[in-house]
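Q: Given only this backbone (262 positions), what sequence would you predict?
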């Protein structure tokens, strides 16, 4: 026993040499990671982030549908804590390394995989510019905003909502200033929902729609004035069949491929 474990420290030296070999092998293995291997690990990490994002979404749904008013403050803290945890995962340096490795030979990946890598890069670059504190504050302020908006709607007094709305606008501007400092703040916000879209392009689109829709609407109104017996949705109705509306909504969802079992 002593000879195998301690022969003039030879056993220790032998084990140390073995450890060095293991470390070297691991280092070589890590450095030799291929884009496809990196992509596979990247997907695992992105799935975990997506699952946590789903939890945040569920908390938001419960907040707006089921949660009693007394639980709102605690829910804000919960969502802030989860947002901070998500931020840690979204900004992990290892995630950045995996993206960079996948990008090093992106042509080795399929078109869908390339798109995923591109989106991962865009998200990573944005989140790494955003502080953990800002991410948490954004989540908590969202709950505060909903509380104020709900009360304002119930009392038909939106001055109640004004102070927190101003906080939300200010926070959005601050986030835009750090994530896309070279952009107009509104364009930076639009880009989160429609990548590449700008306020200037939206103005062009709405001008085009206005040019065609306003004359059409005037024509319809003129026809209704001339022939009041014509049926028109413009008049509104107090008798909407909610069951038929629900049926139509379901048919549209089914046509879009929505899975009602998930």
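A: Predicted residues:
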């Amino acid at each position: 026993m002593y000879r195998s474990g301690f022969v003039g420290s030879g056993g220790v030296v032998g084990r140390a040499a073995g450890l060095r070999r293991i470390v070297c092998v691991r280092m070589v293995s890590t450095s030799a990671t291929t884009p496809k291997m990196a992509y596979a690990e990247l997907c695992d990490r992105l799935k975990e982030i997506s699952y946590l994002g789903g939890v945040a979404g569920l908390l938001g749904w419960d907040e707006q549908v089921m949660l009693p008013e007394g639980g709102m403050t605690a829910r804000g803290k919960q969502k802030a804590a989860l947002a901070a945890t998500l931020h840690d995962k979204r900004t992990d340096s290892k995630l950045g390394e995996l993206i960079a490795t996948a990008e090093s030979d992106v042509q080795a990946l399929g078109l869908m995989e390339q798109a995923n890598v591109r989106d991962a890069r865009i998200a990573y670059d944005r989140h790494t510019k955003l502080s953990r504190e800002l991410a948490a504050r954004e989540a908590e302020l969202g709950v505060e905003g909903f509380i104020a908006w709900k009360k304002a709607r119930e009392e038909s007094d939106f001055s109640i909502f004004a102070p927190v709305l101003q906080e939300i606008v200010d926070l959005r501007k601050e986030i835009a200033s750090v994530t896309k400092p070279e952009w107009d703040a509104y364009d930076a916000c639009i880009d989160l929902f429609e990548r590449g879209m700008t306020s200037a392009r939206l103005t062009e689109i709405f001008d085009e729609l206005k040019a065609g829709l306003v004359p059409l609407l005037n024509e319809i109104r003129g026809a209704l004035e001339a022939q009041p017996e014509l049926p028109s949705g413009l008049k509104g109705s107090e008798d909407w069949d909610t069951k038929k509306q629900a049926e139509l909504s379901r048919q549209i969802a089914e046509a879009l491929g929505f899975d009602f079992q998930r």
